[in-house]
From TrEMBL:
Spans through the membrane: none
InterPro entries hit by this protein: HAD-like_hydrolase (IPR051400), HAD-like_sf (IPR036412), HAD-SF_hydro_IA (IPR006439), HAD_sf (IPR023214)
Protein's UniProt name: HAD family hydrolase
Keyword Signal: no
Required cofactor names: Mg(2+)
SUPFAM superfamilies: HAD-like
GO annotation terms (biological process): small molecule metabolic process
PANTHER family, A to Z: GLYCERALDEHYDE 3-PHOSPHATE PHOSPHATASE, N-ACYLNEURAMINATE-9-PHOSPHATASE
Signal peptide positions on this chain: none
Family of this protein: Belongs to the HAD-like hydrolase superfamily.
GO MF annotations in UniProt: metal ion binding; phosphatase activity
Pfam families: Hydrolase
């Protein structure tokens, strides 16, 4: 099935691929696992059930995503923290302390999806420059770097850009353009991989890059026009790119 899908697909523009961009949460790292740890710490702090805390985190995440996409956040970390704290009926300080406790736990070194290491090893062997492009919620990009390092994958990437440090965020063209410049390639020579239709797929395409949407629950992998693809696993990407 995999080979048939890509044999029928069209190439990603005429330019040869020079760089590859990745989203982080729910693309490389499992956000649900981190939220589960944060919920455990919140449960201990508040003496409320973990399940209640976990449901609140997921609900707050969806609200914060919508507000951020609408441009309602002037300070992404603080503004999103207010949304999460309000939804959970806790203080922002309590939220931050639960996050710190969660990040310090050994389990944060076990957050990569099963397909990540193999895919990155194969892509690294192809000598393609790779970078990370991440928006932030209530923790800074530096915390995510620590988690990436604990999971053994930070070393694969030539550049890491987070919205709290750069002042630009997906789906804005400026975010993709900044990473392309850091990786010394043009947007037309870059492919972005992520799990969000708006921030990753649409953002990359509108910016002039090509895009791969990772959708692990999709029944099939398929192409969308000339510059966009949907894959069920990251391990499909090296085979796809080798055809360019």
């Amino acid at each position: 099935m995999h080979s048939e899908v890509w044999q029928k697909s069209q190439k990603l523009k005429g330019d040869r691929l020079k760089c590859l961009s990745f989203d982080i949460w729910n693309t490389l790292l499992d956000l649900g696992k981190l939220y589960s740890l944060i919920a455990e710490e919140l449960s201990e702090i508040t003496e409320r059930r973990k399940e209640e805390m976990e449901a609140g985190l997921k609900s707050a995440y969806q609200k914060a995503l919508s507000l951020r996409l609408e441009g309602a956040f002037r300070s992404p970390i603080l503004d999103s923290a207010r949304v999460f704290a309000s939804e959970l009926n806790i203080t922002e300080e309590g939220l931050f302390r639960a996050l710190v406790r969660a990040v310090m736990r050994a389990e944060t070194g076990e957050m990569v999806f099963d397909d990540v290491h193999r895919a990155l090893d194969e892509l690294n062997a192809m000598n393609i420059k790779m970078g990370l492009l991440g928006n932030v919620m209530f923790w800074p990009g530096m915390v995510t770097r620590i988690i990436l390092e604990k999971n053994g994958i930070l070393r694969y990437f030539h550049s890491t850009i987070f919205s709290d440090e750069s002042g630009v965020q997906k789906p804005d063209r400026a975010a993709f353009e900044l990473l392309a410049n850091r990786l010394e390639c043009r947007l037309e020579e870059m492919v972005h991989v992520g799990d969000s239709l708006e921030n990753d797929l649409a953002g990359a395409l509108i910016s002039g890059a090509s895009a791969i949407l990772i959708k692990r629950d999709s029944p099939t992998s398929f192409s969308i026009g000339k510059r966009a693809f949907v894959v069920r696993t990251l391990t499909e990407i090296p085979g796809l790119l080798s055809k360019l």
